[in-house]
Design brief:
This protein is of the alpha+beta class. Helix content is 17%, strand content 46%. The strands form 2 sheets. It has a 14-stranded antiparallel β-sheet with strand order 5-1-7-8-9-6-2-3-4-18-17-16-10-14.
Amino acid sequence: MSMRAVYPAATKFKYIVETLAKAIDEIPFIATPEGITVKSLSPDKTTMIVLNMPASSFEEYEVSQDKVTFVVGADELRKAAKRGTRNDVLEIRVDLDARKLILVFRDKKTNISRSFDVPLRESIVEELAEPQVELTVTAQLIADDFKLIVRDAKLVSDEIEFKAYEDRIEAITSSMQKQYKCIMDTSGGLISLEVRGKTPVTAKYAVDLLQAGMKAAQAAQTVTMEYGEALPMRLVFSLPAGSTLVYWISPRI
């Protein structure tokens, strides 16, 4: 095998893959002795996904060389990954010679194993860099709370505006005779907040783009939200065992 890894929570992996599949058509993996990474832009360049799964986040991890790269269809991997249950441990194998990725689900209670083969694609893995921009607002909150804000906003409009002050963040959506407003501060809603420079710091984002990242919230405990005046938003979902999923979203001008 070119790569082999055992991940302790199959359902968490399912949510990670579902988030990737919402944004990109193909998932380019890079596996090194340090761990597994994914970096990719959505076809319309409005979002960027960065997944980091260090070797320490797996119960077992091995690669046959310094770098193993492979690409799978996002929808094909999503369909296989969604078969995992809360009782399953997931073994991930990559066989470059056979041109396939293998997912093996093993039930911790019954020890029954199920495996799915996902074909590898011939696409080239590009090593992308994250945007280099100065984001002046950094806020950390419970992932489920952020997911609730996005769901509420979608009931009113297709875009959401964030306004950051020294002591709070306001999330606002409005349309004909309708408005939604959520106020968060460190006494309610925010774990921490740092705002640098002049306030308020205002930016607008498409609700659909935010919603596409919400599957990651089901695998995460917290999310760190960073943005700047009319600049991209950077969402960092803290996943189990030290993994992170970074989700960049372009602003609406």
